[in-house]
Design a protein that fits this description.
Radius of gyration: 17 Å
Distance between the termini: 19 Å
Number of strands: 0
Helix content: 55-70%
Structural class: mainly alpha
Largest sheet: none
């Protein structure tokens, strides 16, 4: 993983799929107006099909960033292999935080 020579690698495909799935929620009307009608948060899954999609996207994003990219960059940093990428900056900032704040970052 890491920087990849072409766009056919698994992580690249996984990244683009995760972004595509996330972008679905950015479309107007893709989900109900939960901010305006808070009671919608309490609808059960069968009456709120968007909830399953949200859970799937959340899991995909967490797996991609935390279980793949984050761990790989952290390992490379520990071996002294730095590229100056965005994830290195996140890790550096995260390492200086207390436990509760660290969990909130990643």
């Amino acid at each position: 993983m890491g920087r990849t020579p072409d766009a056919s690698g698994f992580t690249v495909k996984e990244f683009y799929q995760a972004e595509h799935d996330f972008n679905f929620f950015l479309k107007v009307g893709a989900t109900p107006p939960i901010d305006i009608i808070p009671a919608l948060k309490y609808l059960p899954g069968p009456l709120a099909p968007w909830k399953a999609h949200v859970k799937k996207v959340r899991k995909t994003m967490k797996d991609l960033y935390l279980n793949n990219l984050f761990k790989e960059v952290k390992m490379k940093m520990e071996r002294g292999m730095r590229t100056g990428c965005w994830m290195e900056k996140i890790i550096e900032r995260r390492d200086g935080l207390d436990d509760e704040a660290r969990e909130a970052v990643l």
